[in-house]
Amino acid sequence: MNDILRSAMQRQLQSANQPVPVEKPAFSPAGTPVPTTAEPVTSLKVKGLDEKAVLVSVKRRMYAPYKHDAEESRNYGAGNVSKHLFEGRDNRVKETISKYTSVYTYVKENTVPWTTGVDMLNIEHYQEFTQGLRQLIADAESHVTDLVAHWDYEVSKDLTRLAQIAAAKGKPNLANPSDYPTSAEIQDRFGIEVRFMPVPTSGDFRVAISDADKASLQRQLQDAEASAAKHVIEQMMEPMQRAVEKLAVPIGDDGSIFRDSLIDNMVEVADRMARVNVSDDADVIRRIADLRSLVTTYSNNKDVLRNSQHTRDVASKQIGDLVNQMSNLV
């Protein structure tokens, strides 16, 4: 661990936050969940990002399986036409691209936004985050190695696919070996670069800066923290709103089929937002705890939701009420 992360973790431990306890909703003997009463919310208040977070930048380099088709572009006459190479998912190219996309998705799901191309990681979960990231990167790189080893086979298979399309459509120039990079070149088309950086503060400058510049930096930090807190709330609201809409459909009507993922998605996002949250605001922490408490109860009683319209109605109202309370924070 470098000095930046060690220092940030030490500061974070000194100012660790304790979550606000919330009461879990309970089920009555009839199987009906007892509604909870949420407490009033206030405005977002966060501070000390440099003590709680570290910035992370992940840049991907990936092969783009498209080739400009000059002949078809001329025939089209209204723009450029690209030839889709390695169409479908049943090939090593698309599988490798999928692995690199998984790295990007993992970073986005386990951080909050800072600025374009840079995200903010809760320093408390740095070890857990980097362990998962290393595993995903290793998996992606192993797929590149496998792709390079089987490159000629994949190209040959794709040329055969395009030749069949060409024969059916009378386009003899569709399958062209020169459209593909060589096996030596494809290795360089993929890559991942990860950088960790400290959250800036006015004390980071080696020369004196003006009070106006310090104030400007402070406003930027405050805006970034508020934006990060809102991101946490919005991420939770999305699956909750879908659940409200789904549970509102009467049993037996089109679209009423209950799937476990409806609840599982809310459990997952509540747990994930508890990890990524860097806000000290009690209302943000409380809303995360409220969602975890509510959906954990329903997670243990999915069959009730599957079969009882009354329970669905109560659940839809409870989740909807919590959505309304969260909306006051964004």
Keywords:
330 residues; alpha+beta; four-stranded antiparallel beta sheet; two-stranded antiparallel sheet; 12 helices
Summarize the structure.
It contains twelve helices and six strands. The protein has 330 residues and is of the alpha+beta class.
Radius of gyration: 26 Å
Q: How would the global form be characterised?
A: globular
Please give the count of helices: 12
Series of secondary-structure elements, N-terminal to C-terminal: HHEEHEHEEHHHEHHHHH
Q: Helical percent range?
A: 55-70%
Question: Low-confidence spans: pLDDT under 50, at least 5 residues?
Answer: 3-24, 35-47
Biggest sheet overview: 4 strands, antiparallel
Tally the structural domains.
1
CA-to-CA gap between the ends? Answer: 35 Å
Identify the strand order in the major beta sheet: 4-5-1-6
Which structural category fits the helices and strands? Answer: alpha+beta
Mean pLDDT: 84
The total of beta strands comes to 6
